[in-house]
Amino acid sequence: MPDWESAISQRLGPANLDPVREAEVVEELSQHLDDRYQELRANGVSDAEARRRALEELKDSDLLARELARSARPIAPPSLGTLPESSGYFYGFLHDLKIACRNLRFKPAFSLMVIGMLGLGIAGNAAIFSIFNALFLRPLPFPEAERLIDVDETAPKWNLKYVGTANPDFFQWQKANTTFDGLAFYTNGSANLSDKDSAQRVRAAQVTYTLMDVLGIKPVLGRNFLPEEDRPKATKVVLLGHDLWQRLFQGDRNVLGRTLKLDEETYSIVGVLPREAVIPDQAELWVPLAGDPKDSGGWYLSGIGRLKRGISPEQALADLTRVHKAEIPKGRTVNEITSPILTPLRDRALGDFRTVSRILLGAVSVVLLIACVNVAALMLVRGSMRAKEIAIRTAMGASRGRIIRQLLSEGLVLAVAGGVVGVLVGDLFLRAMVSLMPKDNLPRWITFELDGRFALFCVAITGAAAILFALAPSIQASRVDPRGSLQDNGSRTTLSRAKRATLGAFVVFEVALALLLTISSGLLVQAFRKVLQVDPGFRPEHVLTYRVTLPQATYKKPELANAFFDRLTERLRAVPGVQAVGLATAPPLGGHWGNFFVAEGDKPLGPNEKEPVVLQIVASPGYFDAIGMTFVGGRPFNERDGESKDAPVAIVNESFAKAHWGHASALGKRIRYHDPKSHWMEIIGVTKDEKHYGLDQEMRPSVFMPLRQISRNSLAVVMRGSIDPQSLVAPAREILRQMDPGLPMFAVRTMSEQLNRSLWARRAYSWLFGAFSTIALLMAAAGLYGVVSYAVTQRTQEIGIRMALGARPEQVLRHVLAGGMVLVAIGLSAGLAGALAGGQLLKTMLFGVSPRDPMIYAAVISGVICIGLLANFVPARRAASVDPIRALRFE
Amino acid sequence: MTNQPLDRELKKGSAELLILSLVEQRARHGYEISKLIDSKSGGTLRFQVASLYPLLYRLESRGWIQGRWVEKAGQRRRRYYRLTAQGRQVLIAQRRGWQQFVEAIRRITGIEYA
């Protein structure tokens, strides 16, 4: 192609144009001459002739220069636009945004890619943040909630962090403390709420009259309990929860003074509590605890206290401990083992969620970081391509600040679009996650809604993303040397060494983060698989469980209760499809009742020796068969076990047997409660440990006792069928109704469903980690591919020269591959170091897998290498197929 | 030689009208405009670079037309000119004036136009 530009520039000389304007005019006129030349050539005119005739267009060049000097054509705004003079700051900002939108519309593929990546990153963050927000940030619905604190007792010696508060302790604490404005105690239970012809189970809490004052809750109707109603044998009164009030009385305001029949006793309604009265969690109605200070029964109370203003939890703990230990010399020796423990309300309610959701938030920020890095790389490359445009603007007098502002506006527009996409998609993520959560596993005050804090987070994260990915390229682009960029013809804007290094660093960073995340998710998924492979120690398939509670008022005598349950078992066994029926106080995942036992011949415990609490389960003869537990020795209970007071029996699990007798057989050995007056019980069977607390939880030693021996009013019914257990619900309900219409059947669940639910958190976070790491890997691969392809495009000419000088395609392929893989290798080592260090954080979430599991590491590393090779191979092959002739012409 | 200045003036007076008319319907680049003038006038009127572009720039500086760089894949970018709203007013007025002028000439000279 002839060089028109020098010919034109020469003739424009006398016009003395501004250099930028001259560059534009030269460009336009060259295009014209080029068109003319091409046309002539197409008509068969020889090259020399066509060239001559095209240049003839420039005759009258003095006229050209003169006319140009005169015509005051303003350089049309390059695509960045100019800021109208004397415009306010706000107008300037709007103007910037308008231009930014216009520029982005011209590059739809680029813009969509950026918005997509950011959207994905922000979506994950928005979703996880909403969960984090709900769990940790949103204030509890009580006035001055920061002064509220959970009060309990702890007993490390019994291997129990929380024992519950004992009746005498709570009275003593309440009386003698000096650091609380109020202390309240409660138990979370349920009651049969019946009328003439139907019954339902409602969650009923027994609470001290102080609870509402401690929480700072006023009834919406009526009044709180009075102190005199919270005493043994006081008149029976009840406070309704808002929901129950609506359900039973449709919100009737004349409900005060009316009565309810709870467990066959009559209670009169004295008030209705507001909806936010959510302690104890899930309660539907409240009755006074009416505790007796002399009753030294077990540790069964939950406690909550309101600290005096200016009192720290540590001071309060010291105060309660002082009160607690002062009781030891007065005869309450058990207080040597137990001591008070105070925990922030939120921590107590959330337990392990704390770590999990923090780690998830960390993981998802990594995803966002990778997205930002990718976008930054894109912007950097694009910034280089726009060097010329920026050079023109700089030459025209645009300040560096002005240019950065413009580029930042573009970043902002992209980030806001990405943010909108992110929040919308994030909302879907959140819904999906929330739908995975069982409703009753979390306190009711945790609600997953979008709120102001969430909006603020999204704005912050979007703004941060905008700055993060626009600032660096902006500064770099605004340092463009106008002269250099203008002389360049615009199609070959190579990156400086510094920029190439930056892009390389981006890729290394991405690979490292993606590796870190993938190893973590590999470990978690492996842990989850290990959990699923755990032998539960019982057979959960085809098992239905539900609870039946006989009211004390009508089934006061043990014989009545036993007779009822015998009859119930018999009738249930007759249902077609039922294979076995059993009863137990606590089937697997059905809760913990602790007790302490001594074995005959046990050595007395040393003062520092632990005495782990034992899970005590009372079971009917058919229970072991129905739940599918296996015996390692001895036999299950039969109908006669426990009938005679003189020959009490018990069954223990392997853990218990091992703790007391090591490898010797436990059969025939005897155990009893701590109380020396209690009877010795002979061990007639040893079961395999069942995973009572969940597949991924430690099993405690446990003791089973026959129902005949200790009668119980509240039992879980376990039905094993040969058919779908759900189909057993209807006949079971009908039988119960026929036997006693006042008895509801509640907590109806299949065993498989319960096992499944118990794993929801582990399943959810393993799944989430998997999803995050997949996204991270994909984005890292995309980033790697983009950077290597770009480098190849930039070096087409160089590669052409190499090939013209004799480089073979496979050498080029190897060269390019090696260049990319060096980045991958550096990233891998950095990520590996991070994973080895960070794996410890996951320790509490792992199960049966070492945080440095070599198999996982090897699998993930080779996976990342494969992905890296693939992302490199495509551009490398393109480089190897470069045609040297064309590459040399490439401009 | 003697008729050259007249020719130039004639062209110049009418040239504005020609260019405005050509970009009335759609935006065109400089070369296209010069080709159209050439072909539509059957070769009678011919603009060369030196006369065409200063004129385009002048029309642009008056705000009658507006130029804009358009990039197409695999090509150099070109500058396309389109008529502005102000240019449209001018075009309407110039057309009317030109018709009156031609009509006047015709009446005097008796030349018939097809």
Give the topology:
The complex is a heterodimer of chains A (891) and B (114).
Chain A: H1 4-12, H2 19-42, H3 47-56, H4 61-70, H5 89-106, H6 108-137, E1 148-154, E2 165-166, H7 167-176, E3 180-194, E4 199-207, H8 211-215, E5 221-222, E6 237-240, H9 242-249, E7 259-262, E8 265-272, E9 285-288, E10 299-307, H10 313-325, E11 339-344, H11 345-350, H12 353-385, H13 387-395, H14 400-436, H15 452-478, H16 482-487, H17 497-533, E12 543-549, H18 558-573, E13 578-584, E14 594-595, E15 597-599, E16 614-619, H19 623-627, E17 631-634, E18 649-653, H20 654-661, E19 670-673, E20 681-687, E21 702-706, E22 714-721, H21 729-739, E23 746-750, H22 751-758, H23 760-794, H24 796-804, H25 809-838, H26 854-880, H27 884-889
Parallel strand pairs in A: 4-9, 6-8, 16-21, 18-20
Antiparallel strand pairs in A: 1-10, 1-11, 2-10, 3-4, 3-10, 5-8, 6-9, 7-8, 12-22, 12-23, 13-22, 14-16, 15-19, 17-20, 18-21, 19-20
Helix pairs in contact in A: 1-2, 2-3, 5-14, 6-12, 6-14, 6-15, 12-15, 12-17, 12-23, 14-15, 17-23, 17-25, 17-26, 18-21, 23-26, 25-26
Chain B: H1 4-22, E1 28-29, H2 30-40, H3 49-61, E2 65-70, E3 78-83, H4 85-109
Antiparallel strand pairs in B: 1-3, 2-3
Provide a brief overview of the structure:
By secondary structure, chain A is an alpha+beta fold. Helices cover 50% and strands 15% of the residues of chain A.
Please explain how this structure is put together:
The complex is a heterodimer of chains A (891) and B (114). With 891 residues, chain A is of the alpha+beta class. In chain A, the strands form 3 sheets. In chain A, strands 1, 2, 3, 4, 5, 6, 7, 8, 9, 10 and 11 form an 11-stranded mixed beta sheet that branches. Chain A starts with a helix and ends with a helix. Chain B has 114 residues and is α+β, with helices and mostly antiparallel strands. In chain B, a hairpin with a 7-residue loop joins strand 2 (65-70) and strand 3. In chain B, 26% of the residues are buried. At the A-B interface, helix 2 and helix 4 of A face helix 2, helix 3 and strand 2 of B.
